[in-house]
């Protein structure tokens, strides 16, 4: 097998990988949209059940509220890979000892508020996965571009 054949074979594989990642990214965006819409719907139902002032921005913490830490944080993990490239991936850290934010709206809240919280947590997971797929897609496209330039150089030298 010649150098051109090898380069073309790798280009074909990477192009298929890029198309698969694009399809996955589209599906993830649809899942994010569904989770957000579901969360907003459950939040609206909770507001209807409890009254418009019971589920509003008035219950959210302000500058004068006591300090609290987020229950979920997202951080960037970097690791070395082959050929000196770094792999970057978002990961979630959870703190279980925090007060449930649903309690900001009272102690006897409708189940719809818990469902909304669950849907928004699900949306966060989809968003992180989508960001990771986007990163992989960018890396794959960069590799494709590099191989195309290498192919041009090999063809020009022959």
TrEMBL record:
This is Vacuolar ATPase assembly protein VMA22. One of its GO terms (biological process) is vacuolar proton-transporting V-type ATPase complex assembly. Pfam families: Vma22_CCDC115 (PF21730). One of its GO terms (molecular function) is unfolded protein binding. Signal peptide: none annotated. It comes from Tribolium castaneum (Red flour beetle).
């Amino acid at each position: 097998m010649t150098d051109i054949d090898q380069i073309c074979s790798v280009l074909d594989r990477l192009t298929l990988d890029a198309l698969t990642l694009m399809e996955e990214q589209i599906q993830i965006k649809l899942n994010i949209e569904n989770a957000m819409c579901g969360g907003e719907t459950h939040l609206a139902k909770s507001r209807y059940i409890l009254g418009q002032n019971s589920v509003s921005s008035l219950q959210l913490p302000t500058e004068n509220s006591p300090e609290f830490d987020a229950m979920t944080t997202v951080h960037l993990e970097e690791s070395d890979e082959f050929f000196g490239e770094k792999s970057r991936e978002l990961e979630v850290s959870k703190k279980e000892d925090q007060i449930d934010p649903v309690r900001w709206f009272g102690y006897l809240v409708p189940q719809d508020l818990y469902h909304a919280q669950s849907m928004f947590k699900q949306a966060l997971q989809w968003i992180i996965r989508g960001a990771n797929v986007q990163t992989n897609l960018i890396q794959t496209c960069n590799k494709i571009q590099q191989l195309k330039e290498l192919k041009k150089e090999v063809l020009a030298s022959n």
